[in-house]
Amino acid sequence: MTAPLDVEASYRAMRTIREFEDWVATLATDGEIAGATHEYSGQEAVAVGVCGRLRADDIITSTHRGHGHLIAKGASVHAMMAELMGRATGLNRGRGGSMHAADLSLGILGANGIVAAGAPIAAGAAWAAKARGDAVAVTFFGDGGVNQGVLAETMNLAAIWKLPLIFACENNGYAVTLRSDTAIAGSAVDRAAAYGMPAERVNGMDVRSVADASEVAVARARAGDGPSFLEFETYRFTGHNTGERYLGLSYRTDDEITGWRLRDPLDALGNDLPPGRRDEIDDEVVHALAAAVDAARADPVPDPDTAADFMYADLQPRRGVR
Ligand SMILES: Cc1ncc(C[n+]2csc(CCOP(=O)(O)OP(=O)(O)O)c2C)c(N)n1
Ligand SMILES: [Mg+2]
């Protein structure tokens, strides 16, 4: 038996991610966020379902499409927005931006601009966690990450070392414009199963299904029984990044997008809330995000004289060197 879902908290978290991404699109369009940014809208049930089954001391590694993972793991929306807007108050003092945002105090070992590169980092964190106690690690990656060699290497090590690691594959159907069903030979879950770990395909538009599958995988990892692989079937409602809206690409049909929008994870769960409660939460989230954006706008940018600060960690003196 899996634990019941906290419907209100899960809906609030998903709504917060959606509102954050709507702001990101606006701010990127207006030039208040520099460059293109990858939105997570449509995939909220995955981040919230997985992270809702983690403890504060558990670890995640994220991707280039990372805002949802970070918010679901508890990152401050003000500090994230400030980070994206290059402010000194940002999660990483405005130096990382969307694809390098991290908060080690929350077990967030970072978004990552390199496809699947979070996997070996999570494996190392899982190895350390196993040596210290019973924390677990989750690595998020997309269908594009499935074909990266580093993922195969990491799955092998995780299985052979019985690491407390969950491979959370978000199959949103595309790697940029490349359809996953034309790119992945065989299937992602069959590949994972070949390493001797449980591997399952899960409805990634339904937060309950995600949470239930995650709970089982987390319990297995915490008990010392090793890694699991979960392939979440999901969809990104917007383009590969905020720049795609100007490109007029036709790799997805309107019918396809509309069909997936009918499965919006916020509607699926929002309908379970008592009458009127959904509107109240929506209002609260809208106000909270507007306040976060206002605060970030008012925050200072880093002093140019500090541009070279924080480039290197303070190293321990080398042994034998005085
Ligand atoms: C190793 C590597 N190869 C190529 C890229 C360029 N790139 C950035 S995102 C992306 C697509 C990733 O697709 P997927 O893993 O399915 O994630 P999604 O964008 O769908 O969330 C690619 C090819 C990269 N960042 N890293
Ligand atoms: Mg993808």
Notes on the structure:
This protein has 322 residues and is of the alpha/beta class. The protein contains eleven helices and seven strands. A five-stranded parallel beta sheet has the order 1-2-3-7-6, with helices on both faces. Helix 8 (207-222) links the parallel strand 6 and strand 7. The longest helix is centred in the N-terminal third of the chain and has 23 residues, at 7-29. The radius of gyration is 20 Å and the shape is globular. The termini are far apart. The mean pLDDT is 96. Bound molecules: thiamine diphosphate (TPP) and magnesium ion. Thiamine diphosphate (TPP) binds next to strand 4.
How does the overall form come out from the CA principal axes? Answer: globular
Counting DSSP E segments of at least 2 residues, the number of strands comes to 7
Beta-strand portion reads: 5-15%
Coarse structural class? alpha/beta
The average pLDDT is 96
In spatial order, strands of the major sheet run 1-2-3-7-6
- Helix coverage percent: 40-55%
Can I get a quick summary?
By secondary structure, the chain is α/β, with parallel strands linked by helices. The protein has helices at residues 7-29, 44-51, 67-72, 77-84, 118-132, 149-160, 188-194, 207-222, 254-261, 265-270, 277-298, and strands spanning 59-61, 137-142, 165-171, 174-175, 178-179, 199-203, 228-233. It binds thiamine diphosphate and magnesium ion (MG).
